[in-house]
Design brief:
Blueprint lengths: L14 H4 L4 H4 L22 E3 L16 E5 L9 H14 L4 E5 L3 H13 L2 E7 L5 H9 L3 E5 L3 H14 L3 E3 L5 H7 L1 H12 L7 E5 L4 H15 L8 E7 L4 H4 L21 H10 L3 E5 L1 H15 L5 H15 L10 E5 L7 H6 L13 H7 L7
Parallel strand pairs: 2-10, 3-4, 3-6, 4-5, 7-8, 7-10, 8-9
Antiparallel strand pairs: 1-2
Helix pairs in contact: 3-4, 3-7, 4-5, 7-9, 8-9, 9-11, 12-13
The structure holds pyridoxal-5'-phosphate.
The site of pyridoxal-5'-phosphate (PLP) has 18 residues, from helix 9 and helix 13.
Length: 383
C-alpha cells in the first residue's frame, strides 16, 4: 500500500528487530572476554519464547503453573542451542590462534562446531558414534566441510577417545561442553528467558525444565541464573528440572549406563561428563532429575507439533514430556511464576523420526484432477 498525505505515520519496527548482534556482543558484560576482543558470531541467540498453555489442557487446573512457555532453541543458526556455546568457545579458540577444534558428538555439537569453525577459518574434526546420529546433523557437518570420523561404539566411547587424544595433542582444542567457554556461552539462554518473561509482563520463572544428556546445558543455566540473581536482576533462582530418557538415565539410576538406548539420540548418553554438577544444581535449586519413556517423549513430540505448531527433535520433546509428568504429580501447584520448557533442537534435524511418527503415512499419489482430489479430501465435495 502506498503512503499518502492522509496516512498517519507508522511507528518504526522495534530496535531488537533491526539489530541483534549475537550472544557474545549482546552478553559481553556477562562473559569472560575483554572489551577489545573481537566476537565470532552467526547472530545466534535471541530465540523466541513461545506461549504453550495448550500443552496443559489435560492437566487439572490446580496443578498448572501460571503460564507455560517454550524456549525454542531450535531456531539458532544451526538448529540447536549448541550454537551459543560454540559461538563463545570458537571466539576464544580463534582469538588464541588455535588451528583446529575437535569434538565427540551425538550430532548437534558436530553441526555447530563445523559451522563456527568454517566461519573462523579453522579446521574442525568431529567424532561420531557410527549409526547413532540423526541424518540432518551429519549432513550439516559435511556441508560445512568438517572432517568426520565415525567410531564403533556409542557417544561415551567417542568422548573418552577424544579426551585422550586432546591430552596428547596441544594443537587441538576440545569443544565439547567440558570446555568452560561452551558453558559460558550456553548460560546466555537462561538470561534471555528472564528478560523475555519480564518484558512480556509474566514475572520471574518458577521453574525451567530441560533435557539432560552430557549435562553441560543444565550446568550452564544454573551458572547464568545464579549470576543474574547475585547481581540483583532476578528475584529468585528458579527450580531446574533435568529430564533424561529411560534407557539413558544414569543420573536417575545413580550409576553409569553401558549401553544407553532411546529414540532421543541427542541425549543417548550413559556417562554424562557433568553429571555430578547437574545433580548438585538440581538439589541447590529445589529441582529434580527425572526420566521419561520413549513413548512419553513421542507423545510430547506429536503434541508439540500438532497442538502448538512447534517442531522440535525428540530429545527436546523430553522436556515437555517431563513437564507434563511433573505437573500431573502436582510439582507446580501454587507456583508463583511461569514454567519454561527448553526445546533444545529443531525437528528437521531428525527427518527419520519425523516421518516414522507422522500422524498419517504418506499415501501413494493420485491423479492431478479435481475428481481424484475430491475423493481423498475430507468435507464438502469439490463442485
Ligand atoms: C546436546 C543436546 C542435549 C543435551 O544437552 P547436554 O548439555 O549434553 O545435557 C539435548 N538436546 C539436544 C537437541 C542437544 O543437541
Amino acid at each position: 500500500m502506498k503512503e499518502s498525505a492522509s496516512t498517519p505515520p507508522r511507528p518504526a519496527v522495534p530496535a531488537a528487530v533491526q539489530h541483534w548482534p549475537g550472544i557474545v556482543e549482546a552478553f559481553r558484560a556477562w562473559l569472560p572476554i575483554g572489551d577489545d576482543e573481537p566476537a565470532l558470531s552467526l547472530m545466534e541467540g535471541n530465540t523466541p519464547l513461545v506461549p504453550a498453555d495448550r500443552l496443559m489442557d489435560d492437566i487439572p487446573p490446580e496443578n498448572r503453573p501460571p503460564g507455560l512457555f517454550l524456549k525454542f532453541e531450535g531456531l539458532n543458526p544451526t538448529g540447536s542451542f549448541k550454537d551459543r556455546g560454540m559461538a563463545f568457545a570458537v571466539t576464544k579458540a580463534r582469538n588464541e590462534g588455535v588451528r583446529a577444534v575437535i569434538c565427540a558428538s551425538t550430532g548437534n555439537t558436530a553441526a555447530s562446531a563445523a559451522a563456527y569453525a568454517a566461519r573462523a577459518g579453522i579446521t574442525c574434526y568431529v567424532v561420531l558414534p557410527a549409526g547413532g546420529v540423526a541424518l540432518g546433523k551429519v549432513a550439516q557437518a559435511l556441508a560445512h566441510g568438517a572432517r568426520l570420523v565415525q567410531v564403533e561404539g556409542n557417544f561415551d566411547d567417542a568422548l573418552a577417545a577424544v579426551r585422550e587424544v586432546v591430552d596428547r595433542r596441544s594443537d587441538l582444542v576440545l569443544v565439547n561442553s567440558l570446555n568452560p567457554n561452551r558453558v559460558q556461552g550456553q548460560k546466555t539462554a537462561s538470561l534471555e528467558i528472564v528478560e523475555q518473561l519480564r518484558a512480556g509482563g509474566h514475572g520471574d520463572p518458577e521453574a525451567i525444565v530441560l533435557p539432560v544428556g552430557n549435562a553441560g546445558n543444565i550446568t550452564a543455566y544454573a551458572m547464568g541464573l545464579r549470576e543474574y540473581h547475585g547481581a540483583g536482576r532476578l528475584s529468585r533462582v528458579p527450580a531446574l528440572h533435568g529430564i533424561q530418557a529411560e534407557g539413558a538415565d544414569p543420573l536417575v539410576k545413580g550409576h553409569p549406563i553401558d549401553n544407553p538406548t532411546t529414540i532421543a539420540s541427542a541425549i543417548r548418553i550413559g556417562r554424562p561428563a557433568s553429571g555430578d554438577k547437574a545433580l548438585q544444581v538440581v538439589e541447590e535449586t529445589n529441582g529434580s532429575i527425572n526420566s521419561v519413556s520413549d513413548e512419553e517423549i513421542l507423545t510430547a513430540y506429536r503434541l508439540l507439533a500438532q497442538k502448538t505448531g512447534v517442531f522440535c527433535e525428540p530429545a527436546s520433546a523430553a522436556s515437555v514430556a517431563g513437564f507434563r509428568k511433573l505437573a500431573a504429580a502436582g510439582t507446580f501447584r501454587g507456583a508463583r511464576g511461569p514454567v519454561v520448557c527448553v526445546l533444545t533442537g529443531h525437528g528437521l534435524k531428525d527427518p527419520e523420526t519425523a516421518s516414522s511418527q507422522a500422524a498419517q503415512p504418506l499415501a501413494p499419489p493420485v491423479q492431478a484432477t479435481a475428481a481424484a482430489l475430491a475423493e481423498v479430501l475430507e468435507g464438502a465435495p469439490v463442485p
